């Protein structure tokens, strides 16, 4: 038998059994690509991460090597796996700042401590790349959204801080809460336009302290918290004045699926350039176990 230690955490929440669950294989040495994909399907979570231990000099210069899998594919970058994996590494005795060496490059995660509170980590994502803007009528047609529900006061735009999301603003909280879309047609449109997933947001929120209410549907399901998309939304908010430069604001997600999540985001804006995108949140450990193969 081969045995691999596994830690499961809930990310973007202070409360166990909320937020976005993540399974972390803390030493994946010896696992093949096919085995990692199969294990990600076995956990059946939004993502599972695999840590590959390296010598101290390499980790100091490049970071801890981590690979991220969904139930269907390997991703170059994702937010809640980055934050959650860094939390697990830090709990094992790592430094206050953790650098992960992902397929997209190095991503640092820095921690803030408040007495009596779970650890708060904030990752700095890649500087944003703003892609194509999208016509509201086209988006309504390919997603099945009602055109009247799309907020045309701000652009529908594809943004990447490591992976492209197409940010679609929705006028009302009620319309976003009752969201139904054609995932097949939407995925075909995204494939042709260069996006990965849609990220639906509304400036009407459940929590008055939140700046956006968000949802992300994918793989015929829903993601409770999407840190990579939240980084794109942070850049989008800074670009169009929804958030002030370097203002840390709250995005709420996961409420519809009973996994409430809190994502704290901010981005700098220098003239017309948005940079220094950061996404943060709390994380709590839920369980530990062992995989046998």
Q: Could you characterize what this model shows?
A:
- The protein is an alpha+beta fold.
- It folds into 2 domains: 3-123 and 282-292, Roll (Diaminopimelate Epimerase, Chain A, domain 1); 129-281, Diaminopimelate Epimerase, Chain A, domain 1.
- The protein has helices spanning 33-43, 56-62, 79-91, 136-143, 173-177, 183-193, 227-239; strands at 3-11, 20-25, 47-52, 64-69, 74-75, 97-102, 105-112, 120-124, 129-134, 156-160, 164-170, 197-202, 210-215, 217-218, 221-222, 249-253, 261-270, 273-292.
- The chain has an 8-stranded mixed beta barrel, surrounded by 4 helices.
- The model has no long low-confidence stretch (mean pLDDT 96).
Sum this structure up briefly.
It contains seven helices and 18 strands. It has 293 residues and is α+β, with helices and mostly antiparallel strands. An eight-stranded mixed beta barrel has the order 1-2-3-4-6-7-8-18, surrounded by four helices.
Which properties best describe this structure?
293 residues, alpha+beta, Diaminopimelate Epimerase, Chain A, domain 1, 2 domains, eight-stranded mixed barrel, two-stranded antiparallel sheet, 23% helix, 40% strand, globular
CATH names the topology of the largest domain as Diaminopimelate Epimerase, Chain A, domain 1
The residue ranges in which pLDDT falls below 50 over 5 or more consecutive positions are: none
In total, the number of strands is 18
Number of domains: 2
Tell me the number of helical segments per DSSP (H or I, 4 or more residues long). Answer: 7
- Tell me about the largest β-sheet: 8 strands, mixed, barrel
Helix content bin: 10-25%
**Which range does the strand content fall in?**
35-45%
| Topology pattern, helix = H, strand = E | EEHEHEEHEEEEHEEHHEEEEHEEE
- Mean model confidence by pLDDT: 96
Radius of gyration: 18 Å
Determine the structural class based on helices, strands and strand pairing: alpha+beta
* Shape, per Cα inertia axes: globular
Question: Which CATH architecture of the largest domain?
Answer: Roll
Distance between the first and last residues' Cα = 6 Å
Main sheet strand line-up: 1-2-3-4-6-7-8-18
- Return the CATH class of the largest domain: Alpha Beta
